[in-house]
Amino acid sequence: MEFVFNGKKIYYETMGEGQPILLLNGIMMSTGSWENFKESFSANNRLILLDFLDQGRSARMAGRYDHSVQVEVVGALLDHLNIKEINLVGVSYGSSIALQFAILHPTRVRKMVLFNATCRTGPQLKAIGKAWNEATKLPTGEGYYYTTIPPIYSTAFWDKHLDWMQEREKTLIAFFGNDVVRESLVRLTDSSENYDVSEQLWKIACPTLVVSCTDDQLVPPAEQRRIAEGIAGSQLVVIPDCGHCSFFEAPDLFTSLSLGWVNSKTVKIF
Amino acid sequence: MEFVFNGKKIYYETMGEGQPILLLNGIMMSTGSWENFKESFSANNRLILLDFLDQGRSARMAGRYDHSVQVEVVGALLDHLNIKEINLVGVSYGSSIALQFAILHPTRVRKMVLFNATCRTGPQLKAIGKAWNEATKLPTGEGYYYTTIPPIYSTAFWDKHLDWMQEREKTLIAFFGNDVVRESLVRLTDSSENYDVSEQLWKIACPTLVVSCTDDQLVPPAEQRRIAEGIAGSQLVVIPDCGHCSFFEAPDLFTSLSLGWVNSKTVKIF
Amino acid sequence: MEFVFNGKKIYYETMGEGQPILLLNGIMMSTGSWENFKESFSANNRLILLDFLDQGRSARMAGRYDHSVQVEVVGALLDHLNIKEINLVGVSYGSSIALQFAILHPTRVRKMVLFNATCRTGPQLKAIGKAWNEATKLPTGEGYYYTTIPPIYSTAFWDKHLDWMQEREKTLIAFFGNDVVRESLVRLTDSSENYDVSEQLWKIACPTLVVSCTDDQLVPPAEQRRIAEGIAGSQLVVIPDCGHCSFFEAPDLFTSLSLGWVNSKTVKIF
Amino acid sequence: MEFVFNGKKIYYETMGEGQPILLLNGIMMSTGSWENFKESFSANNRLILLDFLDQGRSARMAGRYDHSVQVEVVGALLDHLNIKEINLVGVSYGSSIALQFAILHPTRVRKMVLFNATCRTGPQLKAIGKAWNEATKLPTGEGYYYTTIPPIYSTAFWDKHLDWMQEREKTLIAFFGNDVVRESLVRLTDSSENYDVSEQLWKIACPTLVVSCTDDQLVPPAEQRRIAEGIAGSQLVVIPDCGHCSFFEAPDLFTSLSLGWVNSKTVKIF
């Protein structure tokens, strides 16, 4: 399904009934990435998937932009669906958008789950972003694949699922060989360049679960601890031996942590 | 409610409807310990609480016994309630009983969540058990309180919730001052003395979530890692800055991790 | 050798030549505990061992006191030996004394190494101290042994060195059966009750190495992190799978970390 | 100074007297990288620095080779210097060479210290190597800089020493802009492609200290744990909040851990 935001087509999907959950993609993902998760996420909830601008079947952008436009897309989608209050589950880039949406619209977020999140594009991440963009100057998709993908899965996952990674490598090298995709990825990467909400986390009011992975070689656990310390009443949980791409590396934990957080009543003891 | 097992009264409670969850107590707990959790656990599930033999309102035992009798109590309760397949959520001692029940009756356990579990009473834990039993020889409940309780909550929790701990101290010192209670606790402690299922974990067939706490000063994280490595298809998750008594220290994580694991469909990717 | 401090005999030993290192005992230790370490510590350094008041061959105290008297003993020993500037290596209780000495006499400490240290007797540790003192009311040394010793060695060490622990158990039960020893231990424990230098760490001027052990079930790693964060220019290093009694569990790391820190020139890069 | 190995010039430096220590470079390093460490490492030891083939002032290679030639260079240097038994301190690539030298010549290595080591080029590291080599196809040194350097320093270090990193960036971009350098780096990277000694670690006989860094985003701590578990009698120590380039991030720990391990007598307790 689609709707128009500022003259741009936005693609989304919705399925199931219940407390609504909006899954927010990582930078290289699209609604298609969630194929295996649809059944479990929509069993007791209304699941909403979304392609951000420059992702999947949503419109391409022309020049440079920052996260704020994607944050607006989220608001526009909720308006379009007439949803007052949403549960947000974000992955990496999607967590950044979730954090900013919750800061701007605290009353519209019921609960939030953040996987492999950062609250800022610090100097290291900024430099890594430059590597990603440099790699688009290489003639084929291989350079971009090798520059971006290896650190996104943990060493242990590479060892254990090498066959799957090699299948995926073929698909991704073809995907990254596409100029439209590469240009979109440059813009998506650039949109993160000046991101920093480290001083605004206190504005977040909803119960937030922050999920950290010990072997996240892109955004290490100290970044998620910083987020958890900044959001009053948030909880932090850690997946050991897991990398940045936790939804693929630990799909059952991704699902059960998300659904458990969204669907359980809060317990008060103190 | 109650039923009779081998001539002994067993106290239990049941509330709510849905996939049944049996919460298995830690050694010093009783059905009463779950007061704040009843609402959330019974919102979408049938929640069953149980006092093991020598706990709460169940019968006292006379002489020495081991875990096997408590494992039988679990089976008898399920028979009594005519439940073919159960979801087990265990806390410490309750996790030990859950592990043994799942080993003996793999087809009767649908899913399992283990908090602060060990698969054996190793030499260190055996020695700590002796300290606990030695402390019952002291005239008042104070000795038992100070010997058993301090390491069960994390240093951070003691710092943060000192008022609550001091209230609880009064209650517990009175409770531990009761001879019937002390004698029960000695028997419960002794029942763990020869526990060791470290070589039988492979028999467990159900999806199992193992929850570890970084600051568990009684059963450290390496023990839960051993369990997770022993059970095929189990998942391990870690709560940072949390101690042995995780259901009190992190009630929302205890609840959402348990309910998320029990109520979510498994995702298959590989 | 001995000298007299405020009318009390203080026992000490000194051996070797070079930069002087004073090893400060943990609460249940004495100069005798360092037998296996003398050769390596005195190979290139002047090693000084000391029994604190109420330890080993030093004098017994009569009533209650706090750490300050032990801190004075350290100063008096240095005066007696005519040592202007010392390197301090502390273990647990000894680290507390080292921290206080360095706060009071910043110019007299050249370098410092702290193992399994805490900068305060927080509410949890205070409660554990009560357990230790309660255990002295039991008739034999067994109760004190089981109450104090098990959590001081890691679970892994108990598993690996059970024979050694069982030999040690006999020795320690006999030792703790001695009324003079038990009374001394009560006073030493009480001397820590109101210890708290958490707000004074910034006064420490010397290069300090803080050594943390992941499986320290008495003083968990967060406490050493607090110390490292409080002392400008300190460095933190972690021994995995090691418990509170690190000098016994990892003697080669204890030795090489200490001697490396004391004997190496500082490197300046930034 | 220099000597000739198989017709190739090998550059080395030697300074100081005492137990000899050979510092083995990481892949992008040279003898010049150790400038700030010379004084402390040569104070009580004979320090030897070495440029591997394709590094610094040693000869360039023509075609493809593997680690074995660098291992031979180490042996040839020791022969040239008439050193029977050496202490090896390795950094990353240098640790790989150290491991292989110790496996082949167990009697020639007295002690070994390995920083940020891996015992194999696993599938993930192989893919990262491809990214590095792809980056040499970019016209300027920028691409190579951004692809290789950012993950080599921890996020925390980037935050704290951004000025220093920016100075270094200029130097390194110029350095990586040099075709000879880039070609050398491709060959050095390729030389690691088939490296795997994971099944031969048991052959190592010397006391080995394995140093792991929690925030090593290139070779995560699980790899060093594997090494420590494979070498009987090795010890593992962890530097928290430190990245792959630990000698720059924690120079005082690098120095004191190395010198402490090499210069301390082993303690025997069990």
What does the secondary structure layout of this molecule look like, with pairings?
The structure is a homotetramer of 270-residue chains.
Chain A: E1 2-5, E2 8-15, E3 20-24, H1 38-42, E4 46-50, H2 67-80, E5 86-91, H3 93-104, E6 109-115, H4 123-135, H5 141-148, H6 155-160, H7 162-176, H8 179-191, E7 208-213, H9 221-230, E8 235-239, H10 246-249, H11 251-263
Helix pairs in contact in A: 2-3, 4-5, 5-7
What is the gist of this entry?
Chain A has 270 residues and is α/β, with parallel strands linked by helices.
Describe this structure as you would to a colleague.
4 copies of one chain form a homotetramer. By secondary structure, chain A is an alpha/beta fold. Chain A is built from 11 helices and 8 strands. Chain A has helices at 38-42, 67-80, 93-104, 123-135, 141-148, 155-160, 162-176, 179-191, 221-230, 246-249, 251-263; strands spanning 2-5, 8-15, 20-24, 46-50, 86-91, 109-115, 208-213, 235-239. Chain A has an 8-stranded mixed beta sheet with strand order 1-2-4-3-5-6-7-8, with helices on both faces. In chain A, helix 2 crosses helix 3 (93-104), helix 4 packs antiparallel against helix 5 (141-148) and helix 5 (141-148) packs across helix 7 (162-176). The longest helix of chain A has 15 residues, at 162-176. Chain A is globular and about 55 Å long. Chain A starts with a strand and ends in a 7-residue tail after the last helix. The mean pLDDT of chain A is 97. Chains in contact: A-B, A-D, B-C, C-D. Chain C binds chain D through residues 36-37, 39-40, 43-44, 161, 164, 207, 209, 225, 235-241, 248, 250-261, 263-270, and chain D through 36-37, 39-40, 43-44, 161, 164, 207, 209, 225, 235-241, 248, 250-261, 263-270.
